[in-house]
Write a structure and sequence with these properties.
CATH class of the largest domain: Alpha Beta
Shape: elongated
CATH superfamily of the largest domain: Threonyl-trna Synthetase, Chain A, domain 2
CATH topology of the largest domain: Threonyl-tRNA Synthetase, Chain A, domain 2
CATH architecture of the largest domain: 2-Layer Sandwich
Radius of gyration: 36 Å
Helix content: 25-40%
Structural class: alpha+beta
Bound molecules: zinc ion
Distance between the termini: 96 Å
Oligomer: single chain
Number of strands: 21
């Protein structure tokens, strides 16, 4: 079983070791060493990256037998079994993981202490990390209280201690046993307790900071419901700082868009929304008035066909809903062939009085088919489109010809 150097010293990033074995799964080669400072994926914390000898390690995992496998990148120079190598853990990534994982301990204890909410699971993600709590929902004030408590422990710079126990009965009674109690524990005979001063003690196999001050800052970012529990996203250390910068930049852009300062941004956004709603109402009213006038004009321009039937043919600027509005205003006692053009596209509404022997849906399809357009409806009302605006006059001409031919 690989000796875990990170158990004793999580700030050890370079070490010497002997290559014990190589494993191959598909195209991937894994290196097993007699000792390692690489953390293998487990307990919500991703595996470390770095180098073993000249080979680049892209992931580290734990085998069921307790061996730590360093998966090397394809094309890497794999060290031979029996040779000595120098292993180097990617320091920046590891420090970040230590900050996030330690912040999880502080937050989990805060929720347990303040509200009796236990941590069901933890996941250290690439952008934010999550804690699932055994509670359905929480007020933001409650989250903030837990965050403040966690940060007060950060500011107190409590030492982080690791103690190994071999018998369950020796474990301290104040242990927080929830959530990731089993994470990273290789065998039942090695029980690793990670504590932050008197604030928190829990079973954990992960890597942590040496004192809580290294976490820098803990910030809860958002929550979501997740299968009966409450999932909260948080960031610590440099991640918290970069999240802060992201929010600052969003706020700054919003202020620029509203040409106002930060103190007035909410009022300005509310004013914009109210103005928008008012303008939409005004547009609806004007459209309705315009539609009525437009329809009067179209009725006036109607062509009289044999048998006293009137025909309205027109191409107008407007979307599908404006066309429908126009048709309703023209009335149902005329044959109406309307094209609406908007943004380079054309749509059509054809309708006729029910008593006429005219199939509007068939007519629409006949006229649009040659141009790849389509539509549907009934014999007395049909609508369609899917062709460019410049084809609209040709389609209308064809439709008019078909109608006059049919009624002759
Ligand atoms: Zn942990």
């Amino acid at each position: 079983m690989t000796e875990r150097l990170y158990y004793e010293d999580p700030s050890l990033f370079a070490f010497e070791a002997e290559v014990m074995d190589l494993v191959t799964v598909g195209n991937s080669v894994g290196v097993i060493l007699n000792r390692t400072a690489f953390y293998p994926e487990g307990g919500g914390q991703p595996g470390d990256r770095g180098t073993v000898g000249k080979a680049k390690v892209h992931d580290t995992t734990l085998s069921p037998e307790g061996e730590i496998i360093h998966w090397v990148e394809a094309g890497s120079q794999v060290p031979d079994i029996g040779t000595s190598i120098v292993g180097k853990v990617n320091e920046i990534r590891r420090r970040d993981h230590c900050q996030q994982h330690s912040a999880q301990h502080l937050l989990s204890q805060a929720f347990a202490r303040l509200f009796g909410w236990e941590t069901v699971s933890f996941h250290l993600g690439s952008a934010t990390s999550t804690i699932d709590l055994d509670v359905a929902e929480a007020e933001w004030d409650e989250l903030l209280r837990a965050e403040n408590l966690a940060n007060s422990v950060v500011f107190n710079n409590e030492p982080c201690q690791t103690t190994i126990y071999h018998r369950k009965e020796d474990l301290p009674i104040s242990l927080r046993l929830a959530g990731n109690a089993d994470d990273g524990l290789p065998v039942a005979t090695t029980l690793r307790v990670v504590s932050f001063g008197d604030y928190d003690a829990t079973l954990c196999g992960g890597t942590h900071v040496s004192a809580s001050g290294e976490i820098g800052l803990v910030k809860i970012l958002s929550t979501e419901k997740s299968r009966g529990s409450l999932r909260l996203h948080f960031a610590a250390g440099e991640r918290a700082a970069s999240q802060f910068e992201r929010y600052r930049s969003v706020l700054s852009e919003l202020c620029k868009l509203h040409t106002t300062g930060r103190a007035d941004i909410i009022d300005a956004a509310e004013r914009t929304l109210v103005d928008n709603r008012r303008m939409h109402r005004e547009i609806r009213r004007l459209r309705s008035e315009l539609g009525a006038l437009h329809a009067d004009h179209l009725k006036h321009e109607a062509i009289a066909l044999p048998g006293g039937v009137r025909l309205v043919v027109a191409s107008v600027e407007g979307d599908a809903s404006y066309l429908q509005h126009l048709v309703s205003k023209v009335g149902d006692d005329a044959i109406v062939l309307l094209a609406g053009t908007e943004g380079g596209n054309a749509h059509f509404v054809f309708c006729c009085p029910q008593e006429l022997d005219l199939d509007c849906a068939g007519l629409l399809r006949t006229c649009l088919d040659p141009y790849g357009g389509g539509g549907g409806g009934s014999s007395c009302r049909a609508q369609g489109g899917g062709i460019s605006a410049e084809k609209a006059p040709t389609v209308l001409r064809r439709a008019e010809e078909e109608v006059t031919k049919g009624l002759r």
